[in-house]
Amino acid sequence: MYIYLLFIHKQLTLLQQTQGDDLPDAYRMSRRRSAWLEGIANLAASIMVN
User: Fold this and answer.
1) I need a surface site. Which of 9, 18, 22, 35 has the fewest CB within 10 A?
2) Does the pTM exceed 0.85?
3) What torsion do the CA atoms of 12, 16, 32, 4 make, to the nearest 10 degrees?
4) What is the three-class DSSP state of 21?
5) What is the Cα–Cα distance from 4 to 38, expressed in whole angstroms?
6) How far apart are the C-alpha atoms of 26 and 41, rounded to whole Å?
7) What is the number of alpha carbons within 13 Å of residue 2 lying toward its C-beta?
């Protein structure tokens, strides 16, 4: 969970440095990694519930 929060913090920092409407590539890469970790966390939670 802590790693996921670090990715969110990194994404926020990248967005705050952005000017204009275009998202930086570093943000997009970070978002993909974050989504991957979120999927794993959801899968683990699902397994634990069942």
Assistant:
1) 22
2) no
3) -10
4) coil
5) 7
6) 23
7) 0
d(CA 4, CA 14): 15
Q: Which two tokens stand for residue 26?
A: 């570093």
DSSP string, 28-48: HHHHHHHHHHHHHHHHHHHHH
Residues in the chain, how many?
50
Six token digits for residue 15? 């967005």
Please name the residue that has the structure tokens 């996921």. Answer: 4
Give the model confidence (pLDDT) of 1-49 as tens digits: 577 677 788 888 888 888 877 877 887 888 888 888 888 888 999 999 9
